[in-house]
Amino acid sequence: MSSRIGVVTFPGSLDDRDALRAVTTMGGDAVPLWHGAHDLRGVDAVILPGGFSYGDYLRTGALARFADVMDEVRDFARGGGPVLGICNGFQILCEAGLLPGALSRNASLRFLCRTVPLRVETSATPVTGRLVPGEVVEIPIKHGEGRYVADGDLLARLEDEGQVVFRYAHADGTVDERANPNGSAASIAGVRNDAGNVVGLMPHPEHAVDPDVGPVGGQPLFASLLEHVGARV
Amino acid sequence: MRYGFEVLVSLKPGLLDPQGKAVEGSLPALGWTNVAGVRVGKHIALTVEAADAASARAQVEQMAERLLSNPVIEDFQILAAEELVE
Fold first, then answer.
1. Which among B19, B70, B72 has the least Cβ separation from residue A105?
2. pTM confidence score
3. How far is CA A133 from the centre of its chain?
4. Which residues pair with B42 in a beta bridge?
5. Cβ contact A183–B15 (<8 Å)
6. For residue A25, what is the enclosing H or E element?
7. B8 alpha carbon, distance to own chain's centre
8. What is the mean pLDDT of residues B48-72?
9. Choosing from A72, A95, A145, A206, which is the catalytic residue?
10. Going by C-beta distance under 8 Å and a sequence separation of 6 or more, which residues neighbour residue A118?
11. A218: how many CB neighbours lie within 10 A of its CB?
């Protein structure tokens, strides 16, 4: 039995199909979920995809966090279920209080769209089990509001607890401000919650699974997720 | 009774405000070289139907905390409409 990975479609989601396709490509069972339904259809993991949920009219992710399905996502996450937020999905998880910190306008004020190297900081998440700390994966970013913001206390806590999952880096894995595309605090590209089952990242692993299209740095994330879910079931 | 309010949402002090920086950077071109500390925020006007002013304000406080602002990065200020200078 293959693992069932759900992908939520919000009004304004635009990477939901890519996420579903990435799950299928990597051998999982992709299950479309609807923002207006209090139903996760018995999935083993949930992905909140990229896009502009509800037009992001007030703040990115601010309106989507009140969608019906988010009640179920919250319960699922509290029960230890794996939840992955990609880009807009990351913003939604932060607004929902399921992940620490916030995302705001890129320091350059420019929308960024390019492939970047990411340094893996921890293996202890549902999407990095197959990666080792220090390893570099190439994954595209495409965002206008991806600058991770957190106060000094929170940043210290994230570092102490090993909650930073990915950092923007050079190809050789060094991290500095030149490799930080959007001005994120501590070059943070992705974080996890205390328990480790909820992960958010700005880059798009679902756009990096098909060798015909570009880099395949996203493959190990989906492979890790499927393996993690298989081990849980 | 209907009560008017204005909610001002601003980035917390100390947080980088690239919008404010961009505005500040273009003022000298217009001749204002004497400006510093530009911050850009949001202004949200609304009217609330409530039994009295205190209850109306309490509800706006909740709206501001739960939706109109993100307490992680923003502060808000609530002005009752009658307090506003025309």
1. B19
2. 0.95
3. 17
4. B9
5. no
6. helix A16-25
7. 1
8. 96
9. A206
10. A136, A137, A138, A139, A166, A167, A168, A169, A189, A190, A201, A203, A217
11. 27
